[in-house]
């Protein structure tokens, strides 16, 4: 019970690597995880995108006979999908005897996250035809996410409208967020903004943030400023909206506004947290930050990156946008 609780606590607080280490220690002491713990540790593997450990956890799942548990099977599908092995996720689904909405929705979301939006929609339409699934709010979120990733605006609007007309479901904020983002990503910023006004919910940070990103892509200064102002009101110490707004100003040649944003950042002493990434090689995690030189093989890494970058420039005449240094 103690091990299961600690693993769950680590995973829920995003200490995924510690959760994995504790799971290995637990198995070394011949203690059995519960189905809930297996779901939790598979979620930890998903967040770290470590397929090798995920496959080892799957062997434990099979030995315990837990693959019949719909939530464990769903966690396996999610783990393989986020790890980029969507075909293995499909195998897990095929081998699960009793399929329900949870599994089908996980598979649709998996296809969406792997950039295979067309296959996600084909699966959904097939399930509706065979009446194997009764779509709920979560299922429609997965479908609209697939439309978003694939850029299918017309299909997204069609599915959004079907929620009410065909299935009697009143869209909640998650479905509105998907449709707003879909409009914005396709350049319909004014329509996206109107939908934010019309929906029966107050736009949250995620909606405003995705909208600001689209304003940056399409260079809309007016709507970008509005979105950034809303985000700054919600989280005044978050650097992201300041930096994005400055990029929008710079793209439009508004250098006085860029300087004002810089002064605002300095006055509020806002710092952008370092971005981290990691990779697993030979069962060891290597963690990196921006401009990191602490790794013992930094010289080799940067030499390799320079070689790749030079190859890209030579092969495609690739041009990097001028970066805006604000701090």
How do the helices and strands line up, and which of them pair or pack?
Layout: H1 2-12, H2 16-28, H3 35-48, H4 51-64, H5 70-82, H6 86-95, H7 101-113, H8 117-130, H9 137-150, H10 153-165, H11 173-185, H12 189-198, H13 205-218, H14 221-234, H15 239-251, H16 255-268, E1 276-281, E2 284-289, H17 298-316
Antiparallel strand pairs: 1-2
Summarize, please.
By secondary structure, the protein is mainly alpha-helical.
What does this structure look like?
- This protein is mainly α and 327 residues long.
- The protein is 69% helix and 4% strand.
- It contains 17 helices and two strands.
- It has helices at 2-12, 16-28, 35-48, 51-64, 70-82, 86-95, 101-113, 117-130, 137-150, 153-165, 173-185, 189-198, 205-218, 221-234, 239-251, 255-268, 298-316, and strands at 276-281, 284-289.
- A two-stranded antiparallel sheet has the order 1-2.
- Helix 14 (221-234) runs antiparallel to helix 15 (239-251).
- The chain is globular, with a radius of gyration of 23 Å.
- The termini are far apart.
Properties at a glance:
69% helix, globular, two-stranded antiparallel sheet, 327 residues
Strand order of the largest sheet: 1-2
Helix content: 55-70%
Strand tally: 2
Gyration radius, rounded? 23 Å
The ordered H/E elements are HHHHHHHHHHHHHHHHEEH
Uncertain segments: 322-327
Strand content: under 5%
- Provide the residue-averaged pLDDT: 86
The count of helical stretches stands at: 17
Overall shape: globular
Structural class: mainly alpha
The largest pleated sheet is described as: 2 strands, antiparallel
Question: What assembly state would you assign to the polypeptide chains in this entry?
Answer: single chain
Instruction: Determine the N-to-C terminus distance.
Output: 48 Å
């Amino acid at each position: 019970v103690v091990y299961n609780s600690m693993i769950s606590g680590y995973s829920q607080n995003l200490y995924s690597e510690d959760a994995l280490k504790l799971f290995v220690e637990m198995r070394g002491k011949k203690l059995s995880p519960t189905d809930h713990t297996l779901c939790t540790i598979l979620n930890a593997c998903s967040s770290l995108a470590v397929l090798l450990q995920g496959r080892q956890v799957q062997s434990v799942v099979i030995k315990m006979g837990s693959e019949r548990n719909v939530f464990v099977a769903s966690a396996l599908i999610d783990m393989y999908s986020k790890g980029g092995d969507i075909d293995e996720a499909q195998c897990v689904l095929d081998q699960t005897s009793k399929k329900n909405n949870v599994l089908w929705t996980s598979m649709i979301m998996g296809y969406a996250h792997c950039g295979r939006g067309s296959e996600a929609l084909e699966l959904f339409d097939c399930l509706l035809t065979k009446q194997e699934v009764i779509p709920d709010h979560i299922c429609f979120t997965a479908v609209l996410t697939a439309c978003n990733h694939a850029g299918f605006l017309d299909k997204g609007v069609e599915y959004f409208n079907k929620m009410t007309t065909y299935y009697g479901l009143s869209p909640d904020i998650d479905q509105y967020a998907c449709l707003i983002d879909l409009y914005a990503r396709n350049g319909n910023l004014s329509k996206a903004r109107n939908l934010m006004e019309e929906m029966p919910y107050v736009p949250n940070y995620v909606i405003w943030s995705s909208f600001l990103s689209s304003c940056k892509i399409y260079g809309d200064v007016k709507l970008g400023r509005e979105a950034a102002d809303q985000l700054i009101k919600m989280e005044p110490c978050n650097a992201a909206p300041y930096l994005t707004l400055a990029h929008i100003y710079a793209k439009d040649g508004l250098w006085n506004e860029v300087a004002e944003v810089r002064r605002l950042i300095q006055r509020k002493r806002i710092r952008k947290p370092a971005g981290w990434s990691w990779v697993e090689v030979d069962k060891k995690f290597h963690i990196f930050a921006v401009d990191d030189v602490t790794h013992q093989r930094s010289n080799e890494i940067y030499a390799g990156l320079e070689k790749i970058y030079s190859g890209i420039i030579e092969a495609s005449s690739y041009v990097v946008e001028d970066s805006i240094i604000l701090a």
